[in-house]
Amino acid sequence: MPKFSKQSTAKLKTCHPLLAVIALEAIEEMDFVVLCGHRTPAEQQELYKQGRATKGRIVTHVDGIKKKSKHNYLPSLAMDLAPYPIDWNDLERFKKLADIIMRIAKENATPLEWGGAWKMKDYPHFQLGIK
């Protein structure tokens, strides 16, 4: 049975307990890593610069100062997950993981949004639908 690495466990500990419950149930069904839980304002600003002041494509419209990401709260109201081993081109595995995560959230009556359902797709991203 899959289990979280020390890095994934540490990142999951920065997440809201409702997110942790979902992830801990989901790891029993599919192997995945926790890429990000809490993100500092400085880390958010670095991501915001991508595609603007630094190379790469734009990955966020949230700067962490004028507008906070759900990652910027502590505990984090968002988590980024990726099926393991990570293959960024295999969107079917991201969708399979999302199906598992969203089903568990529904079973736990936890309001959850998946970034893969957004106009600007963010397949690893899951966030609580609470303020």
Could you characterize the architecture of this molecule?
By secondary structure, the chain is of the alpha+beta class. It has a domain at 6-38 and 73-128. 33% of the residues lie in helices and 14% in strands. The chain is built from 4 helices and 4 strands; from the N terminus they run ααβαβαββ. The chain has helices spanning 6-12, 17-26, 41-49, 91-107; strands at 32-36, 78-83, 112-114, 125-128. The protein has a 4-stranded antiparallel sheet with strand order 1-2-4-3.
Output mean pLDDT: 96
Strand ordering within the main sheet: 1-2-4-3
| Low-confidence regions | none
Order of helices and strands: HHEHEHEE
Which of globular, elongated, flat, extended, rod-shaped describes the shape? Answer: globular
Write out key terms for the chains shown.
single chain, 131 residues, alpha+beta, 4-stranded antiparallel β-sheet, 4 helices, 33% helix, globular
